[in-house]
Design a protein that fits this description.
Length: 256
Amino acid sequence: MVYFVGAGPGAEDLITVRGLNYLRRADVIIYAGSLVNPALLEEAKQGCRIYNSAYMTLEEVIAVMEEAEGEGLATVRLHTGDPSIYGAVREQMDELDRRNIAFSICPGVSSLFGAASALQIEYTLPGVSQSVIISRAEGRTPVPERESIRELATHQSTMVLFLSSGLAGKVKQELLAGGYHTDTPVAVVYKATWPEEKILHTTVEKLPEAMEGAGICKTALIVIGNVLGNEYQKSKLYDASFTTGYRKKANDFNTD
Ligand code: SAH
């Protein structure tokens, strides 16, 4: 059996309880060495075989899983954040399916959420934005034109860009071409939840210089939007003048 486990964004105690249990029971661990906190590997049991996938191809990863399966062993494939976001898990699952190797997936705390906690923000503020666009600038992996940052920017939703910290100049151009104001707030979170976490507050206009000045060119998320500002409406959920399924509005006397 293969367990795809989300390791969380960095801090070792941000793996889920389930994920940690799988990790402790694993006979084989294949971890994404570039971003998974190595402290998590200390949870491995004695004799566990540990592989760093940063040095491996897809074929090599699958070969390790296949061999372990042949010996009746449990493999944990430890991915950073949550496996479903830029995790390259689909291709692994398809290979396992082809070999009739069973697998299950344990979700993790994505860096998307690690960054929000670091910034102490809410991505979805009433009166500002009720949607979060998760995307990336085009690098080696092509992005369909209809999903270019320029196109997505027209929604003026909260936007969180993965894998784009080396492309800040292009990100700025695309955001402006898509209609963002030069002074729209932007935050960059480097290594959210790690001890070396860094936060940068800037604007669309100043993004490239600010990132360069701070020396941030990888392992960061770029958060764009007015949810980083001060204006918003309070939620209806806790508004005294609204009735909800759990609570009647303040002047709602009577009834059942
Ligand atoms: N599955 C992961 C994302 C993997 S793609 C997740 O859910 O978080 C790798 C990209 O994720 C990095 O280039 C960076 O943009 C982002 N990333 C991963 N960990 C991060 C962290 N702790 N802080 C900021 N960005 C992070």
